[in-house]
Amino acid sequence: ALVMAWYCSGSTNTELIENLFKSGLIKNKRVKEAMLRVDRAHYAPSRPYSDSPQSIGHKATISAPHMHAQACEYLIDHLQPGSRVLDIGSGSGYLTHVLANLVAGPDAPEQGQVIGIDHISDLIDMSRTNINKSEEGRNLQESGIVKMITADGRLGWKDGAPYDAIHVGAAAESLHPALMEQLRAPGRLFIPIESEEEGTSVVARGGQYIWVIDKKIDGSIHREKVFQVKYVPLTDAPRG
Ligand code: SAH
Fold first, then answer.
1. Residues 135-184: tens digit of each pLDDT
2. CA 163/CA 114 separation, integer angstroms
3. What is the best residue among 72, 119, 229 to mutate for testing ligand 1's pocket, by most ligand atoms within 8 Å of CB?
4. Each residue of 177-201: pLDDT tens digit?
5. What is the edge-to-edge ordering of all strands in the sheet holding 146-150?
6. What is the pLDDT of residues 6-49, one digit of tens each?
7. For the packed helices 121-131 and 94-103, what is the interaxial angle rounded to 10 degrees?
8. Residue 95: CB within 6 Å of ligand 1?
9. Distance, CA 36 to ligand 1 centroid (Å)?
10. Beta strand pairing status for 221-229 and 208-215?
11. 118 CB under 6 A from ligand 1?
12. Is the Cα dihedral 107, 37, 187, 80 positive or negative?
């Protein structure tokens, strides 16, 4: 992981994205294009072009660039102009902006929407400010293509359903049924899930894994456990 971080980091946004592309962490041209158009410096307060997560306060982190890239790569078939997307645990708002670039069509009938949800209202305010730092981001918010909402993401966001793609940016204890209900058929969910302890040995820790869950056109469900990760937990909102 350290070698990858060294290899993929850059001294500019373009260099970072080009390095992710060269290393194969970004494969899709549309993903690359969408990420090139968002300056991470608007979202990460320090070391924005380093391929590592950064603290953004409130016990939240902006995920590492390669994780944002992977999320887009897995969801890309469901991120077409006109698609509807839910980004749960939106934090800095970086990924919400990238996802919006992918679903915003050039013409009105194709306008998609990305709804970003975080349960900390200060972070929602911060993400709105971050997105407004670029003209493109301002337009996305003014046109309603990007909508940021303070809410408990474990319940999804019913008013905007069904979604072509749902991204979860914090580790869930279980697969929340509301998210599956709000997924379109066909649709895809990208979610880190805390796995249960396997066996009885003390060393056999569970860990977190990304699950890619498809709701097929006939409504059937297909799940795949793809790789191990380390996200902050999806929790109850802090009190007071
Ligand atoms: N995708 C974000 C990740 C932020 S870290 C980024 O890269 O910037 C995870 C976020 O999940 C935190 O901002 C945290 O406040 C939020 N979160 C945790 N539990 C939540 C819940 N139940 N509902 C909504 N957001 C939650």
1. 999 999 999 999 999 999 999 999 999 999 999 999 999 999 999 999 99
2. 9
3. 119
4. 999 999 999 999 999 999 865 554 5
5. 146-150, 113-118, 84-88, 163-168, 183-194, 208-215, 221-229
6. 568 889 999 999 999 999 999 999 999 999 999 999 999 999 99
7. 50
8. yes
9. 23
10. antiparallel
11. yes
12. positive
| pTM beyond 0.85, yes or no | yes
| Helix H or strand E segment including 168 | strand 163-168
CA distance 105 to 100: 9
Tell me which residue has its CA closest to atom 19 in ligand 1: 234
Which atom of ligand 1 is found nearest the CA of 117?
24
Rounded to an integer, what distance in angstroms lies between the CA atom of residue 159 and that of residue 155? 11
| Ligand 1 contacts CB of residue 123 (under 6 A) | yes
Ligand 1 and 94: CB distance under 6 A: yes
Read off the tokens for 170.
């914090």
Identify the residue whose C-alpha is closest to ligand 1 atom 18.
234
Determine how many CB atoms are found less than 10 A away from the CB of residue 234.
23
Give the residue, 199 or 239, on which the prediction is more confident: 239
Say how far apart CA 118 and CA 123 lie, in whole Å: 7
- Dihedral (Cα; 90, 93, 96, 101), 10-degree rounding: 180
State if residue 69 touches ligand 1 by the CB under 6 angstroms criterion: no
Alpha helices by DSSP H, listed for 104-145, are: 121-131, 135-142
What residues act catalytically?
Answer: 63
Q: Which atom of ligand 1 is nearest to the CA of 236?
A: 22
In sequence order, what are the beta bridge partners of 149?
Answer: 117
